[in-house]
Write a structure and sequence with these properties.
Layout lengths: L3 H11 L8 E3 L1 H7 L2 E5 L10 H9 L4 H6 L1 E4 L3 H12 L4 E6 L4 H9 L3 E5 L2 H6 L1 H6 L3 E2 L6 H7 L1 H9 L5 E5 L4 H13 L4 E7 L4 H8 L22 H10 L2 E5 L1 H15 L5 H12 L9 E5 L7 H6 L4
Parallel strand pairs: 2-10, 3-4, 3-6, 4-5, 7-8, 7-10, 8-9
Antiparallel strand pairs: 1-2
Length: 316
Amino acid sequence: MITLSDIRKAQENISPYVKRTPLERSKTLSRHLGTNVYIKYELFQKTGSFKPRGAFNKMMSLTDEQRQKGVVAVSGGNHAQGVAYAAATLNMDAVILMPEDTPKNYLDAARSYGAAIELLPTIAAAFAEVERHQELGRTLVHPFDDELVIAGQGTVGLEILEDCPQVTDVFSSIGGGGLAGGVAIAVKSVKPDARVFGVETVGADAMAQAIAAGCVVQLPAITSIAKTLGAPAVTERTMLLVQEYLESVTVVTDDEAIASLKFIVERLKVFPEPASSCNLAAAEKLRAEFSPDSHVVIILCGGNFSVADLCTYGKV
């Protein structure tokens, strides 16, 4: 079981390597939602998302022998860059298994950090290939089903508490559940009455479907525009974290995520991924949950997308 102590230890471990991203109150969003709204700008993290936090915490735990043999990871986007960056910083060899439909900008970014990329037909096929690399001695850095990775992601929650100790509500995207779970453990361990809301998009809603079914559900395909939420399935570990610590999981449409993205771009002057902007869409849906005295933090967890993709968003 992951504890607040584990997350604090992770914060100490990774602080030399990751940015302490800003948290700011937004007057625009506060007026828009009728309460106090803050943005956690995790899209300013190195590599453009929160992923290096968990990657560093996991990889720094490895023995010298494990480091010499290198790591393997599976990713359709941000986790690839996080692992590749951490491996380059720690002078380790990394192989990233990625689906063939991964956008070119993600492939180029991961390669730029020196990682070797292997393309597989699907994300499920990429996960199936992991065992072969483990047999060669590589250590798997899982994108979310790992206590050290979750503790690393949970450091986002510690920073929220430090910068906004009056926080009452937090909105976090869910891909596999590592970020939302880690943040929720951190926040609720210090402020039990605070609420953490998970957010997914239709077509990348493995957690919502698992919660509804009472067991892990395998998605046949990821159809959402929010590709970085595209875990084909969550795990029992992350599902239990969500059930224990999160208030709910809200699923929004691609159109709602894009409408919120446009609003953020126009008014906050930053470019989040749909996997981040969906949090604002969920907060808009749940605005009746807030009072004028609430303090709502929206995590913009990533900002990686290609210009080509951006140009198609207006057509969604």
